[in-house]
Amino acid sequence: MSKNSAPVPQNFFTTGGKQTSPLRLLRNRLLTALCIVLSLLTLVPLLSIIILLLRNGLPLLGADLFTQLPPAPGQDGGGFGNAIVGTLVMVGIALIFSVPLGILSAVYINEYAPTSKLAAAVRFVAKLLTGIPSIICGVFAFAAVVMTTHQFSALAGGVALSILILPTILLTSEQALMGVAYAYREASFGVGATPFQTIWRIVLPEALPAMMTGVMLAVARASGETAPVLFTALFSYNWIHSLMEPTASLSVLIYNFASLPYSHHISMAWAASLVLVILVTIVNVSAQIIFRPRHR
Questions:
Q1: Per-domain residue ranges for the chain?
Q2: pLDDT tens across 56-81, in order?
């Protein structure tokens, strides 16, 4: 030790060139352990739901549930194949309406006019719509579509769900576009690309994985909504033959069957809940597999 170097106190030790107090190190380890424990606790509700669904829905799960129609109250057997098809149809209609509108709106307010009053108004309205109860979207679609066509239909249900998920797609798409480094845009402009070519060839492919995350969140929410579908598509015990007729959905089937005083229908509600979770999981995992290599 040189003459000019000060002696290290006994209650300190050197880490990475800095003197650290043992008390501070102990506090850091305790807070780290606390964060780990709290992170694990966040998994408890998810694991509890999964275990509950598996325990109550798995015994009834079989091929008949996907190919047969729901049984009448008090009867056994049957399935909910029409509800699965109806859910897929209405969520598909919602995505057809909301995805192009949400992504194009996000492109405009982020790439063309990020500081304009219109962009600020669109952001404000989108954030406001995220807090509106889903039943309000159902009431609006009921007044706009059902009252106009004079019948409940899958189209009305898709419109209600599209209004519900549009803000989520718009806001997540804007955040995805903001996450693309501006250097990519400058490099594209430097080689003579137009703004449209830059957005189409550079920005959108780079932001696509994050955009798909928002779309998957929207799909998960739309698949489990009950109130908007109940107001617009109602329910049906038959297969869907037209978009302009009452249509069954898994969420409404769960709501209806869970309130019946029959053990078989309650078991079918549990099985339908499990199937709904499985479908949403498959869609999410498939999207991640498809778009992740493209992002790399």
A1: 89-295
A2: 999 888 888 899 999 988 888 889 99
Residue 19, SS3 per DSSP: strand
pTM of the complete model beyond 0.70: yes
CATH superfamily, region 89-295:
MetI-like (1.10.3720.10)
More confident residue, 14 or 97: 97
pLDDT bucket at 6, cuts 50 / 70 / 90: low
Phi, psi of 235 (to 5 degrees): -160, 160
Closest among 167, 145, 163 to 154, alpha carbons compared: 145
Looking at residue 13, what is its pLDDT? Answer: 46
Cα–Cα distance measured from residue 235 to residue 6, given in angstroms and rounded to the nearest whole number: 81
User: Are the C-beta atoms of residues 146 and 152 closer than 8 Å to each other?
Assistant: yes
In whole numbers, what is the pLDDT of the chain averaged over residues?
A: 88
| Strand, coil or helix: 18 | strand
Q: Are 146 and 232 in contact (CB under 8 A)?
A: yes
Region of 177 (left: φ > 0; alpha: ψ -120 to 50; beta: rest) is alpha
The helix or strand, by DSSP H or E, that contains position 198, with its residue range, turns out to be: helix 195-198
pLDDT at 202 over 70: yes
**Residue 76 three-state SS:** coil
Q: Cα separation of 45 and 60, whole Å?
A: 23
User: CA 151, CA 70: separation in Å to the nearest integer?
Assistant: 22
Q: List the one residue out of 147, 149, 291 whose CA is nearest residue 213.
A: 291
First CA to last CA across the chain, in angstroms? 51
Output the pLDDT for position 22.
84
Structure tokens at 212: 């798909």
